[in-house]
Task: structure prediction
Amino acid sequence: MKKTILNIEGMTCSACSNGLEKYLNKQKGIHRAEVNLVMATALIEYDDNLKIEDLNKMVQGAGFKSLGERNDKKEKRNELKKIIIFSILGIILMYISMGAMINLPVPEIIYMNKNPIIYSIVIAVLSFTFLIYGFDIIKNGIKNIIHKMPNMDSLVGIGVIVNFLYSLWNTILVFQGQTQLVHHLYFESSAIIILFVKIGRYIDGKNKNKAVDSIKNLVTITPKNGTILKDGKEKTVTINEIEKGDIVVCKPGEKIAVDGKVTKGETHTDESFITGESKPVTKKVGSKVLAGSINYDGYIEYEAERIGKDSSISQIVNLVVEATNTKAPIARLADKISGYFVPIIFLIAIISFILNLAIYSEIDKAILSLVSVLVVACPCALGLATPLAMVVAIGNCSKRGVLIKSSESIEALKHIYTIVFDKTGTLTEGKLSIVDGEYTKENIKILQSLEAMSNHPIAKGIVNSDMNKNFYEVKEFKEIPGKGIQGNINGKTYYAGNQKLLNEKNIKNIYEGKELEYSKKGESIVYLFDEKEVLAIVGLSDKIKENMEEIIQKIKENGYKVIMLTGDNETTAKAIAKKLNIEEVISNVSPKEKQDKIKEINKNNSCLMVGDGINDSPALKTATVGISVANGTDMSADSADIILLKDNMNLILELLNIGKKTIRIVKQNLFWALFYNICMIPLAMGILPISLNPMIASLAMTFSSLTVVLNSLRLGGSVGDVPNRFKMTQKGTDL
Result:
């Protein structure tokens, strides 16, 4: 199964995106399709035997245009000029048609009462130019009706055409001598409706672009060119020409072209575009460098390792874009409402026409009510309510060094009650070193040789303890999650792990007293043993992360329950927990047991799990929301819903605040969109003492969408810590 994101042209409201999504999900070979109105994209999972061209045809079959995987859409630079020109024409049109009503001087040759035929021709021609200007709206509306997916354009298009044709019929009768019908020409309504819709979409488009700017900017982070060494000489090439293994040169002030490893030189780089941390990072031989980071002050050469789609920034862009294309449960509710909205509006418009005709016996009043209902109804606001808020929130988080992999995660943050922390590398720095132990020089070399094969923080601590420079070759290496590792050195099998692994292999522990002694100091314990006996024991010490005590306290003050869940022994875990004032500790658990504990917690309350290791992956996947911290393993990052790119636990509080604020904004958007329609549609029907004409209705529709857009953009500001007003009176209740 493959996955892609296509750029779609022609979507104007939620009815469009919902219709296309339903159509694609019915197509053979497509497993899942999610269409994003704000980003104008479709996330599609499909069979391997299908090609992008096949997907493009499916999109076309639904009445839209696919621009493929690359967004080739260009902003219409002359759109503002057109709006200005047609606004001037609109003012002229309104002056001619209504100037006399408010005693403004109108030239006699186009005055309706003195020259009705010339007047009719002038306003008909002027209005027809607006129909040409808005032909895309009319065409799209009719096309979607044909495809049985009526949308906002369908409502506006039908309303404009009905109004224009009725006015045109009356114009013909004026030509035949019924000059009194000159007062029943409503050409200007069709023209002004189109003008207001165009102005509204232009403003909406500009504001929506602000929402996706942070996402678009990610794509431009990497430079277009790089310098490689070829036969000892520097050669400037495009990024696409750099191949894995090439030696790339980067001088002060330049950007790193591709991900790689420094082979020569030393410098400081700015990686704030990924981590959000402005502090320069020291790079020397052996250090990793990231594409897009800025070289401050040194000359370096580095070997290209990850290029193109495999680079860190490309993966981040893909994660962020995919996240904006997923749908939160609240968005699916809005989609469901929008799916019924347009057909219901058509029905209400017809009922309005019939009622006005029956009550007032005036065909023009009945037609105006029909047009007003069609124009004032606004599924656009409903469609934008959720996705726009999600796009702003996800884009804002990406700028702050937080990758959110799905919109569902943002909504889930609102319901979190319990926060579960792994210990090593999460609450502590994960930079352990051997501080105690019983071992020989040979045994420590064997232990370090084994641990050099692992990526666990404890393994790194053992390896980085400067005791041996050269390690033995390890064969048949195997990770035993939650317990330790094993490997063959010089034909003999050795194990390195905790008390659980000792018990599993039925090896007598001759160092129980030492384990208790080291554990009381808060040290992590590792044994080295073979098939017969324990060979060594080491105790590793770790530092609690800076400000972690304050962060835990602040989390608890905001009403969240905090639990430590670790595979380390009980004595060590409780020693760390005591320093952090964490009352509940679950220790000495395997990855499977961690997962089971998370399942148990989730039965009663939604929980958030924070971890960084391979042994955290099942628990991260099981939690309501899983967060992988900076420098976590690839597997834990894959299992997590959210990835912190900088090592700052304060971001957890910010995330919880973002989740609450985003859902609050979405609910406000949905309320105002529904409230607007509930208030405006009865007025547009014309059966109440107060009524709307089509021009005012189109202006009101524009303000409805604009309200939702501007409200969503409030999420784009800085997001601080969770305000201290989250008081728990029962499970997860926000009062």
